[in-house]
Structure formats: C-alpha cells, structure tokens
Design brief:
Distance between the termini: 49 Å
Number of strands: 12
Helix content: 40-55%
C-alpha cells in the first residue's frame, strides 16, 4: 500500500509540474504567438486554456485516469523532443518551425494509438512444457484479468471465449480479476453464462483476484462477491478458495488472493498429503510468492494481476519495489514453472505499451520413457 501511495503522490506531482511546462511549450506554437503578440500573460492564458479544453475533452472520451496517463505521455515526448532540439541548436542549427511541439504531438499520437490497439485487441500466447508424470498430454487455456466491462462487455467476453475454445483446450483456468467494481451485474451474469456454455474435458476453474469481491459496498455495482460466486457455480465453474482437486493424475490448486484474504494458507499446507506423482497446477492471482511456492512439489504456477507491467519503461516497477516477483512471462525456479500473463483485458487504463492483451494456451506433454 505504501508503494501505491508513493506512486499516487509522484503522479500528482508530475502532473502539476507538467501543466506548468506544457503551458509554456504550447505557447511556442506560431499561431498562439501571433494571437498574443508581445503579451506574455495572454500567451500563457491562451496556452493554459487550450490545454484545459483538450484535457476536458479527453476526460469525456475516456475518463480522468486515462486523461492523466495521456497527458504524462505527451509531456514525456515534449521533454524528449525539447532535449533533442536543444542539442541541435547547440550545433548552430536554428528552426523557424516549432519542431519540438509538432514532433512530440506526432509521436504521442502514434505511440498512444499503438498502446490502445495492444490493449483493446487480444492475442494468443503459447507455451509448451514436458513432464515425466503420467498425464499423457494436456492442453490448458488460461484467461486472466478480464475485468469485464473494461475493454469488452459480457457479449465481448463470450466472443473471446469462443475464440479460445477453437483451440480445443482440455481445461480452462481463470486465475482472478474476472470482474471488478465497474462491471455491471448484467455483464457479470452474461459472462458467467458464457462460461456455462462451453464444455472443456476437465471443466472451468476459477480463483479470486483482488478486484473480484469489489473494494466498495455491493450496492456500488449491484452484486456482492458471494453473488458472483453463486453465479459462477450455477454455470458449472469450479470456484476455488484455497482448495485442491485431483483427477486423472492432475491436481488443480486455487489459492485465495494474497492482498484481500488474510486467512490464506501457505501452498505447502494446501499440498500436504497430495501425491507428488500428480501434475500440480496452481492458480495464484498475484505473482508474489515465488520463493515459497518453488519449495513445494508444484509443477506449474499461473498468475496474472500485473497486466504485463502496463507501460514501458516502468514495466518492471513492481519487481524493483518488491511488490511482485515478476511482471510477465515464464520463469523456472527449483523445477517449478511460473507464468505471469498480461491478461485478456485491462482495468481502468485503456493503453498497454511494452506488452499486450492475451490469453494462454499451454501444451503439457509426457516425456518419452
């Protein structure tokens, strides 16, 4: 929590200083200079007004959070372009056109458009592992961080689900953040119903993320965490809260979320008495327990939560500050494979850079003996 408070303070500070800088930078455009003449106060007033109008429009198109994110990116590109232009001027080159401004605007449009595309479209990411355990072959589909309503509604979720099922997975695993506080009751019910309409061989399995129960009173979104759980169960989904299930030499473990459920058990305790000849797959929403989990007989641990680091170049912020053990991809520790997926959607933010929205298809095959 302390780290996130620090982030909020840092963002607000950058925003405040950025408004001052951008007001001056916008005033360098020729049209504004001609309008204001030699009246510096008028130039600043016009520049601030333009900045305020654009920010307000972006707030209406997206929301305040995304407007701030866009502003900070534009600010960064203005600063970079300004640095480049100053270096060129030191070499004796002068410009009549405000290349800092026009260049920064162009790069911002391209960069944020790509980020929007990467967030609001979904890719399939494949992994393949082998094991000496007697499971034959197993195709696992993983769908995390759908945050229904963020980038697609209930019908959109159903459409993505059908795309995933075209891969004919044996099992579908959902390691958390299926919904969040902004997910409507209607979209929640529609998405649960969509899960009930598919029939992979070993079914659909779900564990909680930090957003699923909701951070506010249930009246805020019209349903509680228990309502969600009941709707999932009604549609045949295995809801797991520190639970262990075994079938056909496969063991599925669904852990409680580490940040919202205080009574969560250690994985070693959950696996006590489990035959290690089973292939053990663990769903753990937040990737912050690698060390302890790697000391258990778990074969594969699946996480989400990080959204792939969200933005370049702060992608690895969570690792640098010790919030997460990883933000994206595969890692092996002590014989246990860990995967963090960037998720099939996003939360409040509409952009992803340095990562993309995805679902996983994991092929696990038995080694030849």
């Amino acid at each position: 929590m302390t780290a996130w408070i620090f982030i909020l303070i840092a963002v607000l500070t950058v925003f405040a200083l950025g408004v001052i800088y951008m007001t001056a930078a916008i005033g360098r455009f020729g049209g504004i200079q001609r309008l204001s003449g030699d009246k510096r106060w008028l130039r600043r007033l016009i520049s601030f007004g333009i900045l305020a109008v654009i920010f307000t429009i972006v707030c209406f198109i997206f929301n305040v959070v995304n407007a701030v994110i866009i502003f900070i990116h534009v600010l960064a590109f203005f600063l970079i372009a300004g640095g480049v232009i100053r270096l060129i001027k030191r070499a004796g080159k002068e410009f009549k056109i405000n290349w800092q401004g026009w260049g920064a605007i162009l790069v911002s449009i391209v960069y944020l458009s790509v980020g929007y595309y990467l967030c609001n479209n979904v890719w399939q990411t494949d992994y393949a592992f082998t094991t000496d355990k007697n499971i034959g072959s197993l195709k696992v589909a993983v769908l995390s961080d759908s945050h229904i309503g963020a980038t697609f509604d209930g019908d959109g979720f159903a459409a993505h689900l059908q795309t995933i099922m075209q891969q004919n997975p044996d099992i579908l695993l959902i390691p958390g953040d299926f919904v969040d506080d902004d997910t409507s009751r209607e979209d929640m019910i529609r998405s649960c119903k969509a899960l009930g309409e598919i029939h992979p061989k070993y079914g659909v399995w779900y564990s909680y993320g930090n957003h699923d129960k909701g951070y506010y009173d249930s009246s805020f979104r019209g349903y509680s965490g228990e309502d969600l759980e009941n709707e999932l169960k009604k549609n045949g989904v295995h809801v797991m809260l520190d639970d262990v299930e075994i079938f056909d030499n496969i063991c599925i473990v669904g852990r409680k979320d580490s940040s919202t459920m205080r009574d969560r058990k250690d994985l070693s305790e959950l696996l006590k008495g489990v035959d290690e000849s089973n292939y053990i797959i663990v769903m753990d929403h937040e990737p912050n327990d690698y060390e302890k989990e790697s000391q258990t007989p778990a074969d594969l641990v699946l996480c989400g939560h990080t959204h792939g680091g969200q933005f370049f170049p702060v992608t690895y912020f969570g690792v640098w500050f010790g919030i997460n053990d990883a933000v994206y991809g595969h890692e092996q520790r002590n014989g246990t494979d860990f995967i963090v997926t960037s998720g099939i959607a996003d939360w409040a933010l509409k952009f992803k850079t340095g990562t993309k929205s995805e679902y996983l298809i994991i092929n696990i095959s038995e080694t030849s003996k």
